[in-house]
Amino acid sequence: MCGIIGVVGSNDTLATLLQGLERLEYRGYDSAGIALVRSGHTWRARTAAGTESVAALRVECEDNAPQGYRSGIGHTRWATHGAPEAENAHPHLDCSGHVAIIHNGIIENHTELRVELRERGHVFTSVTDTEVVAHLVEEMRSTGLELLDAVRHALVRVRGAFAIAVMDATEPDVIVAARRISPLVVGTSPGVSYLASDVPAILGRATAFYAVNDDEIVRLGPEGFRAVDLEGAPVRLRQLHIDWDLETAEKGGFDDFMSKEIAEQPTAVRSTLLDRRRRDGTIVFDELRISDQELREVQRVVLVACGTSLHAAHVAKYVIERWSRLSVDVDIASEYRYRDPIVEIGTLVIGVSQSGETIDTIQAIREAQRRGARVVAISNIVDSSLAREADAVIYTRAGLEVSVASTKAFVAQVAALELLALRLAQLRETLTPEEIERNLQGLNEVGDHIATALSRSDDVNAVAQQLLEARDYFFIGRHVGFPTALEGALKLKEITYLHAEGYAAGELKHGPLALIEPGVIVVAVTTDPQMHEKILSNVAEVKARGATVIAVATDDDEKIDAVADFVLRVPACDPMYSPMIDIVPLQLLAYSLARGLGRNVDRPRNLAKTVTVE
Ligand code: M6R
Known about the structure:
The chain has 614 residues and is of the alpha/beta class.
């Protein structure tokens, strides 16, 4: 959940590291730090200024950093072990001050290693799990090993997850980086080598990019890199095809990434749907490495995911069951692994993850594979860990999502899952060719409907302005309106820090209704014609108890104005596609309230974009 970056051989070291950290802030931002290394000297700066840590680090470096260092490493932290304070910020040093290390992940056996190292005289200056690795490398170096082998031997002692980068001022112009579970990429340009948690950190600087696999160790120098496995045997890193441009990694004229990514949703859906239908009507996924016969034999589907991706999975349950007539379960990924799940012949497990690096989801699909399931990944990041470990993958093509609050990934995931549902229906012949064509046509219109919903942002802002004093929100919906409500509530709580809960509208009367009183806001998703009467009854129930009601309603709904206090209109479409459209005013509402309350929408407190710890 932290961001790491390193560069070696550069004339622009400090600028490269600071820019990279700014682009990695979405991974964590409790504190930040940098180490510049040259022969015999390490200069280090660390700041802990909450969401402004990287900005504070820039000021500190611009005032005090020495010139002429061609290599260095940088880190932006999401605290796990040790409070978000400067002494726990990375880089960490060994006793000599020559070895500097940055780390993303968790060293699970750090307590026993710390005891052991202390007994041998090492002095610790932080309470982090990471610092043990600096001291382990120090010991290995003292036996005369070069840095690559010192890191390799140190890692044999370590359990847990890591992407690390290590420098030693006594072996300058070298960075040794290694990966187990946590993501790591390497980049090169003539005379310079880079490493980072994610490609965007080094976009525009590196010209070629390479993926590091688990238990691979890379030695980077100005001349390029070489990689070995834990035994020291050479390995080749796989080159990545990256078609993102710099604009993708920057805000492109928007105030923040969240508003940019909300605006990109029509494109995210259209791109995800593009070229998925052959002339004869067959739905195809070029990247899906699973045969039609295997898909035909599927008896049951289990979706595993977290957060927003979990809500997209909830939508898929309704759609797959209706169109493909398969029984579908949705599981919270962090629960699936630990509850002895049942995997029978014909169980297809679908792991849904924007980043493809969420450790809970990766562990869930590993568990499913161990039990014999075939696994399909829905991932937005090409070549992500999830994509590589699954038996098959479908990529959403939402483009890079930077804001911690996920928006365009959600609509793209729903689009991809609905396509998969149609493919299953095609193979199982549970829909006629005409029904499949009609649905494909309907899906193709979703991008335009989202654009229409986006064009009404002023209406949403006007409602938000009147609700800045409200503190409690309930989001309700029925059928696919239920996962939409869950996602609307998640967006609101995540970026406004207000209390928000999502409920199936029919559940309110079984308990939560006791919380409804004047001052509470109920946001009702009322767009499904078949559910309309029922949800209007639920709206009446909360109105009778004093709640203020915001309804998300279709343009043709003539009854809603009489029962809701505020109405946010969206274009009407088949309810099965509606979550992709109905979520738009809910995202805009959360965004507008967060801005009105002075929140940092891209960097909500306590969170990180990619959650690589359990
Ligand atoms: O990368 P993933 O889709 O696996 O991430 C899952 C969740 O961590 C993520 O959706 C999270 O809930 C978002 N911050 C919600 O906006």
